[in-house]
Records
---
Amino acid sequence: MARVEIPEPYLTAWRAFLNAHAATTEHVEAALAAADLPPLAWYDVLWPLYDARRLRMGELATRVVTISRSGLTRLVDRVEAAGLVRREACDHDRRGTDLVLTAAGKAMLRRMWPVYARVIEERFVAVIGRREAEELADTLGRVGARAPAAEPTASSVRRPALQ
Amino acid sequence: MARVEIPEPYLTAWRAFLNAHAATTEHVEAALAAADLPPLAWYDVLWPLYDARRLRMGELATRVVTISRSGLTRLVDRVEAAGLVRREACDHDRRGTDLVLTAAGKAMLRRMWPVYARVIEERFVAVIGRREAEELADTLGRVGARAPAAEPTASSVRRPALQ
DNA sequence: CAGAAATAGTTGCGGGCGCACATTTTGTCT
DNA sequence: AGACAAAATGTGCGCCCGCAACTATTTCTG
């Protein structure tokens, strides 16, 4: 029956990890919904497009780790239907689709970020010291590292200042 | 437009946090599926029942933070249909439903934990120092703390030794 | 250069989830 | 006691997701 042993401190940390994610995520979604804004998943599509100006579906998929390829297709369907992004033909590869942010998409990004950021500040920044944040980044960076060497990282949350 | 500012180290930590969760979660689900076992959500139902012997739907909902009340109803429907738990009438309150683990449920728990634990070891324990684990638990514990004072914590991952 | 193999993206299908509402039972106030 | 609010689940409905299969291209191979 292979008695699996995981030392107490690790187990506690693991539980805290899962809890923290559930709690914060929930609050972000609630805040967005309360402000009549789309779910966080839309942000994950819009931001990389703002950051890169133009991306192919596959490249976007690389940055949105939380959803499957087909799921992304339909997520983009919806975001496009809302007029926030536009699909364009890809030059060098007629199989591919390029995505670009529309003006409305950029505007939506500007409306979503403050709401998103507010929750990050209240639930995350507010209870973590600067030094701790650095350690967190380091530790969790290792946990999230794509095992072997390939598997790209993911999830971008704004790098250059959004306007 | 309220230029929201979040210091770099926090943003980096936040990204690492989301990435780490996506990555580990994905691996756990993959490992369970590969072993022909139910998804992690089932574990979240089975374990608290093993831990508490008997729980009402509402009490269970308190511990399974990642799903809504109605979602839990149907999750339990499935787990019950699989013969892993049993719904029983609650004595003092005829509105309520008690849940108890069946022998098959306990057995399933014993099959799932090693697979689950294996991933925790490989992806989490293996890349974190003991000291770091304690700091993680502390820091993320604060992040996951239910804001005001009520809102119970959640997610249990085995406390007494499973057999 | 023909044809197999690989790649990019989409779609059919079945399943799971959350919201809002319905149902049954308790608790309270008068 | 009688009525009304509150609490504990379950249910109808529509949305979203992932898997596997499909189409259209491109790339590799002999």
---
Amino acid sequence: MSRNANLTPLPGSCAACTVRPFALFRVIPQARVGEIARIRSGVRLVRAGDAIMDGVFTMYAGWAFTWTATNDGRRQVLDFHLPGDLVERTEDAAEVEALTDASFCILSKERLCAFMGHDPGLALSYVEGLTRDRARMRERLTSLGRRDAAGRVAHLLLELHGRLLRRGGGDPRGAAVPLKQAHLADALGLSVEHANRALAALRKDGVATLHKGRLEILNRKALEELAGWGGGTQGGMLAPTTLAG
Amino acid sequence: MSRNANLTPLPGSCAACTVRPFALFRVIPQARVGEIARIRSGVRLVRAGDAIMDGVFTMYAGWAFTWTATNDGRRQVLDFHLPGDLVERTEDAAEVEALTDASFCILSKERLCAFMGHDPGLALSYVEGLTRDRARMRERLTSLGRRDAAGRVAHLLLELHGRLLRRGGGDPRGAAVPLKQAHLADALGLSVEHANRALAALRKDGVATLHKGRLEILNRKALEELAGWGGGTQGGMLAPTTLAG
DNA sequence: CGTTCGGTTGATTAGAATCAACTAATGTGG
DNA sequence: CCACATTAGTTGATTCTAATCAACCGAACG
């Protein structure tokens, strides 16, 4: 297999961008898409496992994740980034890494700020994203604080499934989820072995499976039950729109 | 003691507001403070334990916290709100409750949005707050995922101490921290008994004490060691300023 | 002056980490 | 194309951390 087999190039123009309807710039009407060209400062294709050093970018294809190392050398995965997500790599402790081969569109922080300064709609879109991020972190906090291993796994699978569905990926019965068990474990505060056992239990009970990069939901009711799924939509205070979550 | 003994009234004008330097409106120069009067839609004084139903408000005095109930009736505390913090009570599952007697300034969501639409600086200030919230949630996620009980307690105490210091409360050796052990436990995903034992260990080892609403830091080095304290400042991508965190 | 709430302590149990193999894929170079 | 190496997933045994259960104490309060 060629070294670049899975690298998905980006379209040259934002007008043709397939993830824009789910991304920061969704609020820019098609007629004005030309104006955002100056904000883009480049594109990048990276391989699974590569560290991403760019400051602000929009995922185009593939998955990435943000993580941080603890003092004793273990890893906490803080969030997963899907196509359309705006990602900021800040200077602090957190690292960003490509989970699969991935491509993304790098933005100029400066010009983005400037543009938001005279386009409140774009600023609101940015705020929406942050609000949703916070809501997701809160959900995860509840998982790590009060759910057992099976519940945590179930909840994360439902979260990812929902996010994928909202951007047109997968279907009600499953979706492409390229996570390794180690990612699950590190996101959920579990050991790999225990994450494995939780997953095995879901499989044995005919609730869901995660195999070869594919999530299959066999019994949604049971999965939601395990997860203590609130079903909650997470709309931001300043977010009347109902786009990608 | 009178029923209203601890209720701190707000000043009539934003110009005299003692928490504004740490709050959303810090970016409005003193000369233009008059303009934000229209955004305020009222003030409220509440007693410890009261549920807060207002949508968007700035804490003026006292503490509050946001929490959510799990299916099995337990509680997860998602965040603590200190004077100067902007708090949004969204429709979803999360509740906001006064932790002490508290007073705050209610904002009109609509007029706030409108104002931010023509004042990018205010929008940025709002974004800064959200970014910091997210960073704090990520820190906490790391605690719940990868730190043991003592580490979680130590980390939260340091976080709160830092936030208080930055808004002029307390001193390097301690601060007023009105948390009950149950709040600690519910924020950190521990049972009350276990939170108690962790606190007892800190006390026994001369690291820190939390007693009668007061945090005393006896050995900061040791506390940071336990917490795996990264020390990291958490500046937002769009946040060049270095105000309250 | 009894009640309640917050805090403390001990005994027991349960859930998850750790340690230790081992198997199944995936991938690579000869 | 095969042999070997590496990564991902699986399983069992053991240890440990934290939850649960059960009292009990002390201070604040009404």
